[in-house]
Design a protein that fits this description.
single chain, 680 residues, alpha+beta, 10-stranded antiparallel sheet, 8-stranded antiparallel sheet, 13 helices, 38 strands, globular
Length: 680
């Protein structure tokens, strides 16, 4: 009787199952990753991913939810498929490595509705040895003129139990959260990149690439370990993206690695972007900078005018002199223009980007800086009155170009969902999200207008990075995470594991202007920064940016001259990058080779648990002898109290055959510079 009941239950299951047929597949160049496309009996498209024959992503749905027509979800049949190999090596004008190999196999699958409107939707997969990307493409067609996309049905069903490192999406504070570490089944709605480690030790990062004229993808867990794309809302109710055909979506990306460092070494996100559209960008110089900034976060100076105004001619000259004396190219000045007085956070419509305050002489300061080989770094805070900013954009960049300002930090300080868009002057103000379609287009407008004047952009409170620096190499860095300023005034400040988490999460998207190097290790009202002195130096190698700030006050660097020497010496542009050791959220050691020079650097960072790392130096040139200039935690160092300042600077002779042993304190780190002895 029991067997009969089981047979009947199985027959019922079969009767309710919609069988799927595999219609196409494509493998990575090394054959280890395989992507399979299926169409079920209802014409629904899905994909799955295997690595060495083992499921990584189980059957996952593809499709779009529309406002202006039936959803693009079912009724499809495959009409054409082509598979194409591709292999090139391209050169970055600046970056973590000079040469990047772009090697993949591409599957282009065309699907057409069998009935209804006969609409066509193509799906394109590019499969690399270290992961994959896929996107939707819509060619010109009679049955479809435009799409009003409410959301996507795109899914990522993770096949094996996994741990996730993630921050919430759709909340008030944009991307500026401490990372959660939870089982994947406890994720709610997350920003990308989201980093996963399966119980078998496989590491994954889900993100997107080439986000252009489209809303950002969030990930919402629907059930179990199934994540579904959720598009950032648009200002128009009920629709996230409006596009006219032909067009394609951004790439949805999955990086795959057996070890955590493989995610960091991957160039998949960059490779999924279009080549450089700007041509020669040698006018951008990767460099370090100082600025009128940290003193405001310490509440010693103010952005607004008055007795404690930071952006004065006299104070800026002091920073220019400091930059020139210590080999820094840039000086950032915030609060230089009208609009900061009063409650600027609530009303950014008072900002004027074409004038200086009475106590800040922009032409005179630019000339003074130029004589010393220093450039001012401009600052455009919008307080989210973005249409107001756009109306001044050309004139504002013209002003900077006339005064030799070739890098601009932009800002969008307001709560998420409170961007102010006004399409016509005196028209209604519409609220947008920082990462919606309208802001995606705004940021590109800024980058393009800046490029016309040979100006680079460093966006804060930005839309997330998706590798567009390859296409627009003047978009050099972004914030888009909880940065150093939280150590000045937040309770709690950034904990020891935070920057290690960033390496394996936020930094997978692209460069971050974290503003490191606070050697005083002290925030507002004496708040302790949970870091050792050596760890602050390691940030310059561990958290990549082609512009790196020496964020502390000049007098604090004078008080820590030994440690400050590394900040003066460290490079910001690299020929190569290698992850020597690391686990997500625990520790990391990264080696980078200086662009156009024989020197190598190591940055090692630790969570709150002391540990010793044994780092093989096989990356050094064989047959050469190097002087290793080591900046490390001293005996008894710790991330709390006076032990934060226990610090050792020493040198030793090494070769590629050696293994460097580094003890890292809790919340500690180490920074090393390797200089060939025959070139010193």
């Amino acid at each position: 009787m029991k067997r009969l009941q089981m047979a009947l239950a199985f027959a019922l299951l079969l009767s309710n199952t919609v069988w799927a047929e595999q219609v196409a597949q494509v493998a990575s160049p090394d054959g280890r990753i395989n992507v399979q496309l299926d169409v079920d009996g209802d014409g629904r498209i899905s994909y799955r991913v295997l690595r060495d024959g083992v499921p990584v992503i189980a059957e996952s749905r593809l499709g779009l939810r529309l406002r202006n027509g039936p959803h693009l979800l079912g009724g499809f049949a495959l009409t054409q498929k082509t598979t194409t190999p591709f292999d090139e090596t391209w050169e970055q004008p600046w970056g973590e490595r000079r040469f990047v190999r772009n090697h993949y196999n591409e599957l282009h699958a065309a699907f057409v509705e069998k009935q209804r409107g006969k609409r066509r939707m193509d799906v394109v997969f590019r499969v690399y040895d270290d992961g994959l990307g896929f996107r939707y493409e819509f060619p010109q067609q009679p049955a479809l003129k435009n799409l009003e996309i409410q959301d996507e049905y795109t899914e990522f069903a993770i096949a094996k139990p996994a741990t996730a490192w993630w921050i919430p999406a759709g909340e008030w504070n944009r991307y500026e959260y401490l990372y959660n570490r939870t089982p994947l089944v406890e994720v709610s709605q997350a920003h990308t990149p989201i980093t996963l480690r399966t119980d078998s030790g496989l590491h994954l990062s889900i993100h997107e690439a080439a986000l252009v004229d489209y809303a950002s993808m969030w990930l919402r867990r629907s059930e179990g370990q199934r994540l579904r794309a959720e598009l950032a809302p648009g200002g128009e109710q009920g629709v996230s993206v409006v596009r006219t055909l032909p067009f394609h979506s951004p790439w949805r990306s999955v990086q795959i690695s057996e070890y955590a460092g493989g995610l960091v070494e991957s160039s998949l996100i960059l490779n999924l972007n279009e080549p450089n559209k700007l041509g020669d960008v040698s006018w951008f110089k990767p460099s370090k900078y100082v600025g009128v900034w940290w003193s405001m976060h310490l509440n010693q100076d103010t952005w607004g005018t008055g007795p404690r105004h930071g952006a004065t001619t006299e104070n800026t000259k002091r920073y220019i002199d400091f930059a020139a004396d210590n080999g820094f190219r840039g000086v950032l000045v915030e609060g230089w223009n009208p609009g900061w007085d009063g409650d600027w956070f609530a009303n950014g419509w008072g900002f004027d980007y074409t004038k200086s305050t009475a106590d800040f002489d922009l032409p005179a300061l630019s000339a003074y800086a130029a004589k010393k080989g220093v450039h001012l770094i401009g600052h455009h805070e919008t307080a989210c009155a973005v249409s107001h900013y756009e109306r001044q954009l050309g004139a504002a960049f013209d002003l900077y170009a006339r005064n030799g300002v070739d890098v601009v930090k932009t800002g969008y300080v307001c709560d998420a969902g409170q961007i102010e868009r006004q399409d016509a002057k005196n028209g209604p103000v519409v609220r947008e999200w920082h990462d919606g379609q309208w802001m995606s287009n705004h940021h590109l407008r800024v980058a393009e207008e800046a490029a016309k004047r040979h100006i680079a952009i460093n966006a804060h409170e930005p839309i997330k990075d998706t590798g567009l620096r390859r296409t627009y190499p003047n978009w050099i860095a972004r914030e888009g995470a909880r940065g150093m300023e939280y150590n000045a005034w937040a309770v709690p400040p950034n904990p020891p594991e935070h920057e290690v988490n960033l390496v394996f999460t936020r930094m997978l998207a692209g460069p971050m202007d974290y503003t490191p190097g606070v050697l005083s290790l002290t925030g507002r009202n004496g708040q302790e920064i949970p870091s050792t002195l050596a760890r602050q130096l390691a940030l310059y190698v561990g958290l990549y940016s082609p512009i790196q700030m020496a964020a502390d006050l000049p007098e604090h660097y004078a008080a820590h001259a030994d440690a400050f020497q590394f900040i003066k010496d460290v490079a910001v542009d690299w020929d190569d990058t290698k992850v020597l050791a690391g686990e997500v959220g625990e520790y990391v050691a990264i080696a980078r080779k200086q662009r156009g020079a024989p020197a190598w650097f190591i940055g090692a960072m630790n969570d709150r648990n002391p540990r010793t790392l044994a780092l093989p130096l096989a990356f050094l040139d064989v047959g050469k002898t190097y002087r290793a200039e080591i900046y490390r935690d001293g005996d008894g160092a710790d991330w709390k109290g006076e032990a934060r300042f226990k610090f050792v600077r020493e040198s030793k002779t090494v070769t590629s055959r050696d293994v460097l042993s580094l003890w890292l304190a809790g919340g500690g780190g180490a920074a090393v510079r390797f200089v060939p002895i025959d070139a010193s």
